[in-house]
């Protein structure tokens, strides 16, 4: 019984050789496929340069790589390079010109027609000084001119009469010369009184203070009935030397104290981006307008001013702003 079972489990020699033939067959097929792949994949001289049927220049491997690489717009890449900041510094927004309007002579403020924050135009009357003294001087000079005109008229009559008598040898040549010189003196006196009158009118006109620019009143420095002078004589309780301060809100700069180590990155007319700290989403274009000729030894800095193009109401003088100095 056991012998029969063992005999049934025994493998015939023919069946043992069949898997070996199949294994060799698979090995040969794999080898042939591998050789075919290697033959197809091996580099050929004609693969290095392929001439297109269109007649264009040979399409090289480097060109193939460039063609398969992601294409990017040349304009966008150049703009990105030009807009890349090479230096970012903070500074303060300032008016390029702050004008303090002062009187030309000592006087008393009669009227002031503006207040802080008011817009003014070039030539607009903003302050009136007391003009009583200057008006009186105009009247005085006008009266002196009238007297001079009368003196000229009398001298002309005397000259004409003396000339007629001299021709008849009734008057001497000396009398004729005296009359002629008297006429010339009277005419010179008339010109002097006319100049005095013009000067008095000029002083009267100076009592009317006008704005020299289109801008905004930054400060009102005096009040009505206050004494003002064109210059300070020392002391802290003296008369005011300025009436109002005005500036153009459309002419703004950013003042920066640049570290001397960064000076090589900045040059005149360099493009910049300006962003006020109060409104970081606002960006303005600008350029380097001024580089100070002298450094601050104590701070190790150099003052740079960046002119802002097309500023608006969001840019307030004396507030801080960030400036990006661009590559180009």
Notes on the protein architecture:
This protein is α+β, with helices and mostly antiparallel strands. Among the domains are: 85-97 and 248-326, Efflux pump adaptor protein, beta barrel domain (Elongation Factor Tu (Ef-tu), domain 3, Beta Barrel), CATH 2.40.30.170; 131-206, Helix Hairpins (Orthogonal Bundle), CATH 1.10.287. It contains seven helices and 16 strands. The chain has helices at residues 2-9, 13-41, 45-48, 61-68, 74-82, 132-167, 173-205; strands spanning 49-50, 59-60, 85-95, 98-101, 107-112, 119-120, 125-129, 208-210, 215-220, 227-228, 244-247, 252-259, 271-276, 284-291, 301-308, 320-326. The model is unreliable at 48-80 (pLDDT under 50).
Q: State the CATH architecture of the domain at 85-97 and 248-326.
A: Beta Barrel
Rg value: 49 Å
Order of strands in the sheet with the most strands? 3-12-15-14-13-16
* SSE order: HHHEEHHEEEEEHHEEEEEEEEE
CATH topology of the domain at 85-97 and 248-326: Elongation Factor Tu (Ef-tu), domain 3
Average of pLDDT: 82
How far apart are the termini?
Answer: 102 Å
Number of alpha- plus pi-helical segments: 7
- What proportion strand? 25-35%
């Amino acid at each position: 019984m056991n012998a029969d079972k063992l005999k049934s489990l025994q493998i015939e020699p023919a069946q043992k050789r069949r898997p070996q033939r199949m294994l060799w067959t698979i090995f040969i097929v794999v080898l042939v496929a591998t050789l075919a792949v290697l033959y197809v994949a091996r580099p050929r001289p004609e693969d290095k340069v392929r001439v297109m049927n269109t007649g264009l220049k040979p399409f090289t491997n480097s060109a193939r790589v460039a063609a398969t690489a992601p294409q990017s717009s040349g304009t966008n890449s150049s703009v990105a390079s030009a807009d890349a900041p090479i230096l970012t510094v903070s500074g303060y927004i300032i008016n390029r010109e702050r004008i303090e309007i002062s009187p030309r002579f000592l006087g008393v403020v009669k009227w002031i027609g503006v207040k802080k924050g008011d817009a003014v135009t070039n030539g607009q009357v903003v302050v009136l000084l007391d003009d009583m003294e200057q008006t009186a001087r105009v009247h005085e000079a006008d009266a002196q001119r009238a007297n001079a005109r009368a003196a000229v008229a009398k001298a002309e009559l005397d000259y004409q009469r003396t000339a007629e008598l001299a021709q008849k040898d009734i008057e001497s040549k000396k009398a004729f010369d005296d009359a002629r010189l008297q006429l010339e003196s009277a005419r010179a006196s008339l010109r002097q009184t006319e100049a005095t009158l013009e000067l008095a009118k000029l002083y009267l006109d100076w009592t009317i203070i006008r704005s020299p620019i289109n801008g905004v009143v930054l400060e009102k420095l005096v009040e009505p009935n206050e004494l003002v002078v064109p210059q300070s004589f020392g002391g802290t309780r003296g008369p005011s030397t300025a009436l109002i301060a005005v500036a153009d809100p459309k002419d703004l700069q950013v003042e920066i104290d640049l570290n001397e180590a960064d000076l090589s990155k900045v040059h005149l007319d360099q493009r910049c981006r300006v962003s006020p700290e109060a409104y970081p989403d606002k960006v303005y274009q600008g350029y380097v307008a001024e580089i100070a000729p002298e450094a601050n030894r104590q701070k190790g800095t150099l003052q740079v001013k960046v002119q802002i193009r097309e500023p608006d109401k969001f840019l307030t003088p004396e507030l801080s702003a960030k400036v990006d100095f661009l590559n180009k």
